[in-house]
Amino acid sequence: MKLNRFHYSWVILLITFFSIIVAGIVRSSSGVFIDPFETEFGWDRSVISLAFAVGLFLYGIAGPFMAALIEVLGLKKVMVLSMATLLTGTLLTFFMQESWQLVIIWGVIIGLGSGVFLTVLSPYVANKWFEKRRGLALGILTASTATGQLILLPVLAILIERYSWIWAIALIMILSVVMLLIILLFMKNSPRDAGVLPYGLEEEAEINTYQQKRNPISIAFNGLFQAVKHKEFWLLAGSFFICGLSTTGLIGTHFVSYCLSYGIPLVTAASLLSFMGVFDLIGTTLSGWLSDRFDNRWLLF
Predict the structure, then answer these.
(1) What is the residue extent of each domain of the chain?
(2) How far is CA 166 from the centre of its chain?
(3) CB count, 10 Å around CB of 29?
(4) Which CATH class is domain 8-193+228-300?
(5) How far apart are CA 73 and CA 109, in angstroms?
(6) pLDDT by residue (tens digit) across 44-62?
(7) How far is CA 248 from CA 75, 112, 114, 253, in A?
(8) Distance CA 158, CA 266 (A)
(9) What is the dihedral of CA 276, 280, 283, 287, to 10 degrees?
């Protein structure tokens, strides 16, 4: 099978890219909602932060189980279920009245819904659909979260400042609906389903198509038990832990409200945070390009 000039792998890359943007803006938008929720409902900031912290914890720890679900159910079905879960969470936000409902909606529902998009989806798509340019593809997908933050975070802040937080949630919900439809129409489980080979692969290798339908929980734990035996797992896990604690956990969640306490306007604070996304976008895309050309251990160092 010849490599076509326009390969369907790039369509999958675009769908995945914008799906991660939508899921990423749901997660990164938590910072602009702290003060509006505090004002609207009179909830303590620590309770609101708890809800967002539960969401961060669940989307992080759900990674191995989401990867196992993809193996059992297929990529498209898991993406549809996850985007529908995010859509459900944003819809329920309109009806919440108690702080425990915020924990359930933004902690459990949105945390689990964003898990597949913000953890395993990028490496899975890059490895499944790309034989060549794999590092570049992974860099582009990793940069999608920063792209969403860069473009949409100031927009959400403008809607909140001029109208209400309800308008900002409505925008997120509309984007979720659009992406759900695109996933349903154009997403494929594998290159074989699209009638192509992975990008850059000239000849089809013999692939064992037999897939045993096992329990995704046992698949996830078996994978974790194998991973923890290798020092590379702990080095990468430790690096991501520090990055998640500082960037996503502290800055992403509390930077905007921290700026507000110093009298910086909401839109300005959100724009400052999105400005960080400019360098995140450049860095992740460049690191993906470099990983195709240099030893990844030195890049990580």
Answers:
(1) 8-193+228-300
(2) 22
(3) 27
(4) mainly alpha
(5) 20
(6) 888 898 898 898 888 888 8
(7) 26, 16, 14, 7
(8) 8
(9) 160
